[in-house]
C-alpha cells in the first residue's frame, strides 16, 4: 500500500486499473481504445469529476491544480483572444474550469459536509487516508494490476466518491450496473483486503442543483458478481497481453430484450373485458 504516490506517477505505472478491467469486459477492441486514449484531454464530465474529488478529498490542493478564467473575458475580440492566450500561458500546469464547474465542485463538498450520513461514515470509522495506491501482480494470470482508493478509513472501510447525473438509490444502482462499479468494488476489496480493508462504500453526488448525495453499500451478491466478472476480465487481459490480434466488434448472434422490458410490457397491457 502506497500513500504518497503522485497521481501522475500512478498513471505511468504499467499495471491495469479498474477502468481497463471494465473495458476488457466489453471487448478487447474497447480495451485497446481505452489504453490508446488515456492521455487525451478529459471530457467536461471527467474534469468536473476530478475537480470534485480534489475539493472533497484534497481541498488544499485545489488552487494548485485548477484555475478559472477571469469573468468578462470575451474571446471573440482581439483583446480577449490576447488575454486568453496570456491566461493559458500563465496556467500551463493547471486544468481550466468554468465558473459553473468550480461552483459545482465546492457545492458538492459543502453538501457532503452538511450530510449526517457522510459525516458519520468519515468521522466514526477512524482516520482517513486519501488517494492511496496499490500495485500487485495477479497470481493466477500474472497480469500486473493497480488500484487507487479515494479514501481508506482506519476501521477497514474503502470509500469511493462518484459523481452522477442521478445519485438516487435506484439511479445509482443502475449506474453501478451500467459502468461496472461493482467490478471496481470487488477488485478494490481484493486489492486492499490484505491490509484489512474489508468494507466498501460509495459516496454518490449529483452534479446539478440541489447536488443531492447518498452513501451506499453494495450487497454481497453484487460484490460477488463483480468479483466473478473482474476475474473473467483478467483472463481477457492475459489474452490481450499475449495476442497479436482479436475479433473486431461483437460478432453475429441472436439477442433478446432484457427481462425488465417484458415486465414493463405486462404492467402496461390494457385488459379488456
Could you name the key traits of this structure?
273 residues, alpha/beta, Lambda Exonuclease, Chain A, five-stranded mixed β-sheet, two-stranded parallel sheet, 12 helices, globular
Task: Describe this entry's structure for a reader.
The protein is an alpha/beta fold and 273 residues long. The chain has a single domain (13-246), classed as Lambda Exonuclease, Chain A, CATH 3.90.320.10. The chain is 49% helix and 16% strand. The chain has helices at residues 7-12, 18-26, 28-36, 44-57, 62-65, 78-90, 99-113, 116-123, 169-179, 181-193, 220-242, 259-268; strands at 66-67, 95-96, 128-137, 144-153, 157-164, 199-206, 213-216. Helix 6 (78-90) links the parallel strand 1 (66-67) and strand 2. The longest helix has 23 residues, at 220-242. The mean pLDDT is 90.
Tell me what the CATH architecture is: Alpha-Beta Complex
Number of strands: 7
Instruction: Write down the overall geometry.
Output: globular
- pLDDT averaged over residues: 90
How many distinct helices?
12
Please bin the fraction of helical residues.
40-55%
Largest beta-sheet details: 5 strands, mixed
How far apart the termini lie comes to 67 Å
* Structural class estimated from helices and strands: alpha/beta
Count of separate structural domains: 1
Strand order of the largest sheet: 3-4-5-6-7
Residue fraction in strands: 15-25%
Radius of gyration: 21 Å
Uncertain parts: none
Order of helices and strands: HHHHHEHEHHEEEHHEEHH
At CATH level 3, the topology is Lambda Exonuclease, Chain A
The CATH class designation is: Alpha Beta
